[in-house]
Amino acid sequence: MRWWFSALGMVLWLPIGAQAAALSCLLEPSVDVHVGVASEGFLTDVRVDRSDVVTRGQVLARLNDGVERASVDYQRTRESFAQRRVSRTEDFRERRLMSEQELDEIATELQLARAELRERRERLALREIRSPIDGVVVERLKNTGDLINNDQVFRLMRLDPLFIEVVMPLESYGQFALGQKHSITVHHLEEIHEVELINVDRVIDPGSNTFRLRLKLDNPEQRIPSGLRCEFHLNAF
């Protein structure tokens, strides 16, 4: 019986063939990301708070955007005018009352107006903070009225699936394959769950002669929180 140290803490290792061999582990989010905005301005609309469940693409907050909205409205009017002008020239084209160069210039003006409208809409979108993942809000770092200058505003985590990383000794290298099913006991909940091996390190840490396994625990209802201690069982589920 030997002790092995990892970033998750001290873990106890038994030989892989031992009956009921187990390792201490920790449930971690599969994604942990800080979200901000690549613009400067004041937060005027904060829509979520800590512990709120969010979906990918959901608007979390907005900066002041009056100038950008007015710019989009102005360009939308120009695009509409260019479209009407093209429509009016269709009759002239059939009757050959306008040269091809004039018709081409009018059509090009419409294309340029549409491109400019897309650009201004993109600038308006930069005033929004959207969630890049399905997950939960862990921290709200700014409040309504705060001045933002390329700052982080939220910390989000994805809890489905949860990840478990386990440190293994060099002697057990080569005995694992992706897709293997194992089990963990989640402390506090006192539940046993099936987990799937999704990653095996290809590099051995020379200082400790260890390598890491990453396992996945499906958590579709996000009922199981990250941060709970667990026990990883080497025997199959």
From TrEMBL:
For this protein, the record's Pfam families field holds: BSH_CzcB
Alphabetical keyword list: Coiled coil, Signal
**Gene Ontology cellular component list:** efflux pump complex
Which residues belong to any copy of the CzcB-like barrel-sandwich hybrid domain?
Answer: 33-154
Q: Name one GO molecular function term.
A: efflux transmembrane transporter activity
Residue ranges that the Swiss-Prot or TrEMBL entry lists as coiled coil: 100-127
Annotated transmembrane regions: none
Q: Where is the signal peptide?
A: 1-20
Q: Which domain of life is it from?
A: Bacteria
Entry-linked InterPro entries: BSH_CzcB-like, RND_pump_MFP
Q: Which NCBIfam families match?
A: RND_mfp
Q: Which family does it belong to?
A: Belongs to the membrane fusion protein (MFP) (TC 8.A.1) family.
Put simply, this protein is called RND family efflux transporter, MFP subunit
